[in-house]
Q: What sequence folds into this?
């Protein structure tokens, strides 16, 4: 049996999973919507991934993303890492000369600056959705267009509408106004793509020195209209990797290779876990402690900022 490594990236909007071999070649991959239930999403991702691994045994598991600790506890992950580290490792493995990573996901976005594969600076934006995939999806519904078609439609525009880029509310208001005064759908969609790029550069990337080579990843990177908007504004070339939307999962799978190996066997029929929380009142911090239980037994907990909030794991 050949060795394989599993990486799971659990986001608020989408969940991504990959299984790679010892040479970082992707054996199987899966991308689907989290739908507010990360445990069920991971169960569905695993079901798809495990169909493709005949002749392999999984000996390392890594998790990243907003629910990385929860899913890491459930899967018994060998490593749990933040998105910055996972994306940096994944990108620098396949594009070692990369200096800037632009990443835009479903509800958040980030910029990562690299020097010889080492993270030198980064920033994240989780407060405003104006520059994210969820914003584009909601506007696509408003316009009666599939979000997957946004990029191709935007490229047909000859006069992109100027839309407010500073927040979702203003951008939506501008969109309605531009439609009312007669802007074409192509010009409005091109304006939305420009708005996403401007919002990112004026907020997430503000004050950062964006140097080439630049890699654009995350779900929004598949939108050619947003890619072209970034290239026009920055006057720089931007590269979109084929598996850029999976890079967090790929990166954490690669990281799992450095940990102690053990064979994993996932029994999806016994994939039933309970997550609860409790406020610790033992000090002024009053931390919210997240608990993961299986068969009513505590298997992991986190959230405490001092030893008073530590819970004993069974």
A:
């Amino acid at each position: 049996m050949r060795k394989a490594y599993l990486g799971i990236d659990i986001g608020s909007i989408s969940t991504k999973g990959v299984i790679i071999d010892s040479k970082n070649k992707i054996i199987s991959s899966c991308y689907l919507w989290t739908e507010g239930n990360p445990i069920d999403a991971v169960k569905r991702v695993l079901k798809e991934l495990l169909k493709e691994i005949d002749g392999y045994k999984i000996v390392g598991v890594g998790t990243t993303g907003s629910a990385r600790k929860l899913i890491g506890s459930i899967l018994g992950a060998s490593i749990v890492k933040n998105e910055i580290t996972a994306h940096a490792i994944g990108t620098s493995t396949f594009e070692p000369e990369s200096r800037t990573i632009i990443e835009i996901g479903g509800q958040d976005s980030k910029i990562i600056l690299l020097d010889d594969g080492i993270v030198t600076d980064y920033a994240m934006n989780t407060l405003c959705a104006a520059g994210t995939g969820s914003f584009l999806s909601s506007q696509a519904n408003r316009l009666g267009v599939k979000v997957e078609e946004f990029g191709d439609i935007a490229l047909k525009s000859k006069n992109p509408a100027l839309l407010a880029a500073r927040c979702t509310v203003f951008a939506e208001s501008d969109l309605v106004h531009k439609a009312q005064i007669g802007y074409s759908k192509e010009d409005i969609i091109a304006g939305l793509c420009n708005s996403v790029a401007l919002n990112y550069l004026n907020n997430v990337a503000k004050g950062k020195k964006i140097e080439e080579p630049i890699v654009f990843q995350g779900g929004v990177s598949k939108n050619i209209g947003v890619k072209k908007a970034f290239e026009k504004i920055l006057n720089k070339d931007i590269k979109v990797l084929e598996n850029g939307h999976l890079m967090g999962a790929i990166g954490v799978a690669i990281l799992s290779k450095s940990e102690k190996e053990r064979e994993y066997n996932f029994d999806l029929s016994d994939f039933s876990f309970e997550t609860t929380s409790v406020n610790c009142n033992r000090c002024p911090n009053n931390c919210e402690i997240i608990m993961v239980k299986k068969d009513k037994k505590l298997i992991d907990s986190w959230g405490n900022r001092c030893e008073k909030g530590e819970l004993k794991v069974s």
In short: The first strand starts at residue 2 and ends at 10. Residues 185-202 form the longest helix (18 residues).
